[in-house]
Amino acid sequence: MENKIDRKSVGLRIRELRKKNSETQKDLANIISLTPNSISKLENGEMGLTFDNMILISEHYNVSLDYLCKGEGGSNPLETLNKYVSLDYHDISGVTDNDTIYPLPTLSINRAYFEYLIQTANAKADKNIPEEVKRQWLDIEIKKFNEGIIHDAYEDYASVIPVKESIIHSNPNVLIAVSNSKLKDV
Fold first, then answer.
1. Which of 17, 40, 75 is the last residue of a domain?
2. pLDDT tens digits for 45-103?
3. Torsion over CA of 44, 50, 56 and 59, rounded to 10 degrees?
4. Rounded to an integer, what distance in angstroms lies between the CA atom of residue 171 and that of residue 178?
5. What distance in Å separates the CA atoms of residue 117 and residue 119, rounded to the nearest whole number?
6. How many CB atoms lie within 10 A of CB 67?
């Protein structure tokens, strides 16, 4: 597997991000402590990025290192989030006797991300676990998430129907049904 980073492509992405944010080469140079001439060389592929500068640029433009280095992933947080979470309306029928169709919002969540969210919520909610053990648990969940994403390729999703919290609080039957449900079963 070849991991060569094409300097010219990286430079073009940096130029695109800089221009999209209405910044000059001098603006970017000030942010990452380089000269405008160095930014020009970066953008033209004549100079490579240090790891520190890759991180500074990706954080400044709020893009992933994958996007900056390889052009993969989202060029903004919304594109990245859309890989993991989406909301669509699905027609649901059979709820009443008259076959009325109800368009219900359905949240689809990448299963690896969903499992991560469930486990981190469990770790945070458990008051009997020492903080150090919680941190270790969360580190393990992050590793499992990253491995799941690598092997899953965003293909397995869990679907849930989001319900406003006020609806749950105002209807005891819904509250009981929701509190008895197990998110792992989704």
1. 75
2. 999 888 899 889 988 888 888 888 888 776 667 777 877 888 999 888 776 777 788 88
3. 80
4. 11
5. 6
6. 19
Query: Which range of residues forms the domain containing residue 154?
Result: 82-185
Rounded to the nearest 10°, the torsion over CA 80, 84, 85, 89 is: 110
Mean pLDDT (the chain) is 83
**What would the two tokens of residue 24 be?**
């000059």
Same domain, 108 and 61: no
54 and 96 inside one domain: no
Report the Cα 107 to chain-centroid distance in Å.
15
- pTM of the complete model: 0.57
Element (H, E) at 135: helix 131-152
pLDDT tier, 180 (very low <50, low <70, confident <90, very high otherwise): low
> Residue 106's closest CA among 159, 152, 65, 146?
159
